[in-house]
Amino acid sequence: MKITVMTADEQILSLDVDPHETVENVKALLEVETRVPLQQQQLLFNGKEMRNFEKLSALGVKDEDLVMMVSNAASSASSNDLSFNQDGSAVDPGAFQQQIRNDSNLMGQLFQSDPELAQAVLGSDLNKLQDILRERNKQRSEYKRQQEEELALLYADPFDVEAQKKIEAAIRQKGIDENWAAALEHNPEAFARVVMLYVDMEVNGVPLKAFVDSGAQSTIISKSCAERCGLLRLLDQRYKGVAHGVGQSEILGRIHVAPIKIGNIFYPCSFLVLDAPNMEFLFGLDMLRKHQCIIDLRENVLRVGGGEVSVPFLQEKDIPSHFLDEQRHSKQASGSGDVLTSGTTGKSKTVSTGGQSSGNARGDTAQGNDFEAKVAKLVELGFGREAVIQALKLFNGNEEQAAGFLFGG
């Protein structure tokens, strides 16, 4: 069908369009004809604004009907100080900044609604101000797009499967957003960074900041730290192996006993020595149990020996900055509840927390013909080799349970 479009400067255009065309597509055609950007166009039919997502037929537009096009380009060009580019940045950021500064009421409202933008207006970095304005424009555009999509879904065909999927996703997202808003209001501390637990200790007379981790099966010391504490000469290399967790690290051996000082009392401690340059000393569950330690988060202290010694956990300012990254490496080195290494004989074994053996340190079982045959069979089903090996180890070589786990994932 053909429609007639009259512009604000009384230019008359004739467009050949489909009745089911969206208003946004009509604006795109008009942008080519009039050079007026789509974002600056406002189309009116029978005195009512035509929204981008609406279709011509739904609005009642018929063949030979008249549509008015109003451009807001002229009005935006006439306001010098507060005019904006299409990306949301100010045309004249200096003038924009000065005008906002001169309006005390507006500045007060801005500090309440958008403190970051208010600080940028008061600052001297115009580039930062422009970046924030662009970001706010992007957020507004995204919000407007979401609103238009929600309105479009209200008029969608109830028997359209894709439309129903979008409605379901919108309802789910609304629930997530409400949950997030409730958390911000009632549980804002959940969004703060959690600082891990560190205490001051001495290992063989050397002061250290120990990372207390009840999720790690064993107490761990790095090779460099053991050398600094004068303990490397006691390393028993018969306990070599590999510690598996989020990542894996080589176990160089075990130091069977050495003194550690917590508070003013000495306690015997054993360590696994890892080749982990990013991790220094981790006080694990084995020694926490042995010395009857209590992690008291109410008083923010570690109680040792059933309470005979109490040492405070360090505040964030007292923890060296590189230790904050060390938390991640410590988890990788220790396994932290996934798979750790233990050794009661000359061979170290990797043992899962469920108590199932997953093979000796040399991986003899993993290299067996039967194991490889199971791997090949599951790989043929379309699973990755690494995922298959992990699943078989998880279920102690049981092919059916591993397959069920892979299909379920």
Automatic annotation (TrEMBL):
A GO molecular function held by the record: aspartic-type endopeptidase activity
Entry keyword set: Aspartyl protease, Cytoplasm, Hydrolase, Protease, Protein transport, Transport
One BP term from GO: proteolysis
GO CC annotation: cytoplasm
Sequence ranges assigned to domain UBA in this UniProt record: 368-409
Superkingdom of this protein's organism: Eukaryota
Domain called Ubiquitin-like: residue spans: 1-76
Disordered, as annotated region: 327-366
UniProt cross-references to CDD domains, sorted A to Z: RP_DDI, UBA_scDdi1_like, Ubl_Ddi1_like
Subcellular location: Cytoplasm
UniProt xrefs under SMART domains: UBA, UBQ
Bias type Low complexity, positions: 341-359
Family: Belongs to the DDI1 family.
Protein name as catalogued: Protein DNA-DAMAGE INDUCIBLE 1 isoform X1
Species for this entry: Ziziphus jujuba
